[in-house]
# Entry
Amino acid sequence: MNYLKAKDSELIRSYLSGNEAALEFLINKHQQRIFSYILIRIQDEDLANDIFQDTFVKVINTLKKGNYNEEGKFLQWSLRIAHNLIIDHFRREKRMPTMSPTDEFNIFNVLKDGSLNVEAAIIKDQIETDLHKLIEKLPEEQKEVLKLRHFCGLSFKEIADQTDVSINTALGRMRYALINLRKLMEKNGVSLIQ
Amino acid sequence: MDNTITLKDEQDAHCKPRKETIRFILDYSKALDYKKLKSGIEIEMIRN
# Structure
C-alpha cells in the first residue's frame, strides 16, 4: 500500500482489515493539526497530550466497533471529538477548581493525620506490616509495578520505561497485582478498615 | 474557552504530541479486541 498517496478512507479500511501501520500513518498525518488544536486551547502540554490520547482512544473504539461513517472527513471528525473532550475538561475544571498550595495555605497541613491515638496508631502500623508481607507474596513483575507506583510514586509511563515494557503491560500487571493482593488479603484476613 | 483562536494560530503552533503518547495509542489499538457475539452482545477486550 502506498501510504503517501492513500486517502484517509483507504487508510481506515486498511486499518480495519488488520493493518496497524495504517493507523500509525493516519496519526502521523494528522497529529500536528489535532495536537495544535488542543494545545492552543488548553495551554498545558501534559493535559494536551492526555486529551490527544483520549481523542484517539475514542477514534479507535468507534472505528473498531464499525460505527464510523464519515467517509473522507476523518480530520474534521477527529477534531470534533477533541473539541468535545476540551469542553468536558473545562466543565470539569469549573465544577472542581483545583488549588495549588501557597506559602500561607497548604491543604496537607489541614489534612495531616495527627489525631490518631496510640491504639489506632498501633493498628495502622500492624495493617501496613501485614500489607507489606502480602505484597512480597505477589509474582515478581506485579510486585515491581505495584511498588514503583505506590511507594516510589512513578507514573505508568515511567514504570513502562524503567521496566522496559509497554504502558499497557504495566497497566495490566498493576491490575493483576491488585486483584491478587485483594485475594491474598481475603485469604489472610487482612482488612484495611481499622 | 477563547473564541479568538484562528487557524493561523494553530498552524503556527508547530507542535506534536510526545512519542510516548503516540506509542500508547498504538499499543492500545493493538491490545483492543472488539467482538460481536451471535446473540448481539458486544464485547470489548484488552489483551494483556
